[in-house]
Design the sequence.
């Protein structure tokens, strides 16, 4: 018995020493090394949002698209090279993800403020997403820090793992579950669509063919999104697109979700998903609190820590 016990104790200690666990991330990670790191990120994000409000939404989406493809490891930021195709041109990202220049600007500013290369690109993306949400009126949750940057990226995994706006509810839920996220995470995080825009091809089929849509809403979207063409025309994802609030959920209840995938979360059938949408639509505090918790959870997905990966000098290429 004692032998078994001491084996278990030994195993747990040994595992804690070698297996990278999320517990290695901490909100204070840069406090001693570079206390200016977080304020510097926030300043650049604030300036970018002042120049173009949408950038806040773009930076939030960047973090999501980084985390869902082999973890929050900055892989999305890597440029293609002559012998490497990364994630930027995968279907969900191509001509759609934005904010890479702002990340470059933050990286430069942080390297100057810290007098060296100490803040990872993956952490910069996570903090920029949080600051964007907060500067646009959303919650300010503590970002776990200490992520390291990947030396690889995967075009195929980006195509396979990022959810599609044409998917139904069960496919969306499975996509989140395969990341270790649950229904509440799916509904709360979809509230990220409280800010930002989508291109016409992302919602064309919905506004012409779906039946679970407010006809007045559909007609108004059709004006800017013809049956063919309009490839780069954009429409807001909710009715208060520059404000991070719970309007998105009110829109779903009114059958005014812009994406097919958005409306899949509310079918007026009293499902668990419907009940979460109703709760967030009437209770902005519970939305802010659940969104924060789910962002922290998403931000912990498959992170590299300790001496894994690297801290990239330039977020666009491996060292
Ligand atoms: C549930 C599955 C999701 C699907 C199917 C989905 C799909 C999409 C699509 C198709 C767009 C528009 C892209 C374009 O037309 O160029 C978009 C935009 C956006 N998504 Fe999602 N998304 C999902 C979840 C999330 C999550 C979890 C977040 C963050 C927490 C998020 C944040 C955003 C933001 C902020 C934008 C606007 C970006 C901008 O204006 O630059 N999305 N999403
Ligand atoms: C400001 O935003 C515009 C788009 O609205 C963009 O073209 C420009 O590069 C941005 N300028 C800076 C300094 O970020
Ligand atoms: C990405 O979009 C460009 C057009 O901007 C297109 O030429 C290219 O083929 C697309 N790449 C992929 C892999 O779909
Ligand atoms: C959802 O979509 C998947 C893939 O297209 C399909 O196999 C499945 O039957 C659909 N589920 C429902 C409930 O419609
Ligand atoms: C509507 O659905 C039909 C049948 O699936 C499809 O052929 C058509 O392209 C869709 N219309 C739009 C505007 O997406
Ligand atoms: C939802 O269902 C209720 C009755 O079950 C109905 O009164 C209401 O109009 C429906 N809402 C939508 C948006 O379909």
Sequence:
């Amino acid at each position: 018995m004692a032998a078994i016990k001491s084996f278990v104790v030994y195993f747990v200690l040994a595992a804690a020493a070698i297996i990278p666990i999320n517990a290695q991330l901490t909100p204070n990670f840069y406090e001693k090394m570079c206390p200016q790191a977080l304020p510097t990120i926030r300043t650049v994000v604030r300036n970018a949002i002042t120049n173009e409000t949408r950038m806040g939404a773009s930076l939030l989406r960047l973090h999501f698209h980084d985390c869902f493809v082999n973890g929050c490891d900055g892989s999305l930021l890597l440029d293609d090279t002559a012998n490497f195709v990364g994630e930027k041109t995968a279907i969900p990202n191509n001509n759609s993800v934005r904010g890479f220049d702002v990340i470059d600007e933050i990286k430069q500013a942080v390297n100057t403020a810290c007098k060296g290369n100490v803040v990872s690109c993956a952490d910069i993306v996570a903090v920029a997403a949080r600051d964007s949400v907060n500067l646009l009126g959303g919650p300010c949750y503590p970002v776990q820090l200490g992520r390291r940057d990947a030396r690889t990226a995967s075009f195929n995994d980006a195509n396979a793992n990022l959810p599609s706006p044409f998917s139904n509810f069960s496919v969306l839920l499975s996509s989140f579950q395969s990341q270790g996220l649950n229904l509440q995470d799916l509904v709360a995080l979809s509230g990220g669509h409280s800010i930002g825009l989508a291109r016409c091809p992302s919602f064309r089929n919905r506004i012409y063919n779906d039946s679970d849509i407010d006809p007045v809403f559909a007609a108004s979207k059709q004006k800017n999104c013809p049956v063919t063409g309009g490839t780069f025309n954009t429409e807001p994802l909710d009715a208060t697109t520059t404000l991070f609030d719970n309007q998105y959920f009110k829109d779903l209840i009114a059958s005014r979700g812009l994406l097919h995938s958005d409306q899949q979360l509310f079918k007026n059938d009293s499902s668990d998903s419907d009940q979460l949408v109703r709760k967030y639509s009437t209770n902005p505090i519970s939305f802010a609190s659940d969104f924060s918790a789910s962002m922290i959870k998403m931000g912990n997905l498959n992170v590299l820590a300790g001496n894994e990966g690297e801290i990239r000098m330039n977020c666009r290429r491996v060292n």
